[in-house]
Every structure is written in structure tokens, then in C-alpha cells.
Amino acid sequence: MKLAEVWNQNLTGATVRPLTHADDDLIYQFQAAHPAYFDHFQDHPVTRQEAIQDVTDIPLNAQADQKAYMGIFEGDELVVLVDLIIDYPLPSLVWLGMWLPAKSLTTAQSAAYYWSLVKTLRAADAVQLQLSVFMGDRKMKQFWDDLGLTAVQTTTVVRGERVANVTIYQDKFDR
Asked: What per-residue confidence (pLDDT) applies to 159?
């Protein structure tokens, strides 16, 4: 099952497609337009190399075919960048590595896209989604809280010489 194809069946007014290195310029421009996101764990603006590295980066103990790096588009405009690792860290779980909405997107629109993703993942037999939110990112913390995700753990992540506290959230698909 191609995740983007199934997700498109659950969307109205937008399309999802995988992002590849053919989209490097788009990915970099989109990420560079969100400096506040990167300020949580970097002491510099995102570089082109850091942005495009996301296309193929996978966590330890994951395989390349578990990665789904996608964009939600309204017309030709990228409105949400989505980085998923399927069956990670365990089978039937999904790790959401990035949910980066365009500044032009309303909270309600972003939430609708998230719920369409949940519907898609449930159809693929996923039972839970997990993600992390940087402690200083009040906007995304509020977003996930408002959607009913549960904060389950606070931990520390190290990126280079920077250390940041994150909260792990989960969404159990039993509702």
C-alpha cells in the first residue's frame, strides 16, 4: 500500500505526495521559512544540507523503506511537511518525526490534515502514533494537547553540542 495514495483518498482540497531529492530546493525554502522551529535545537538557521538530509535520514534501528517523507499541497503550494517512520520503534507504531505546517495554514486546517493522516494510518493497521515536541515550542505543544494527544514522557535529546528537553506525545488509535 502506498501511503500517499491512500492518504489522498482521505483528503479534500489538497494532495499528498512523497518528497524526494528532486524537491531539495522546495524543502530547504520551506524549512528556512520556519526559523523558530529550528531555534529549539540549533544555534543557527537551518542549512540547505540539514534540510535536505531529512529526505533520507532514518533513526537508529530503522530501515530506509520505513520512511515516508511527504508534503501536503494545496494546489502547487506546500502547506505541511510530514516525516514518518512506519513500524517504529515497534510494529504497528508510527513515529512522526516532523509535522511542519505553513504559516498560512490555520490551526483548524492543520488539525484536519492530521486527522486525515490518522484515518490513513488506521487503514494501514497502525495502532499508535508518537512524536516529540521541544519544551519551548508552546504552539505545537498546544496543538497536540488540543487534539487530545497524551504527553507520556519527558526526555533530553542531544543534537551536536546542543541539548534540548522534549516531551513525547502519543495518539492511541482506539477512539
From this structure: 67
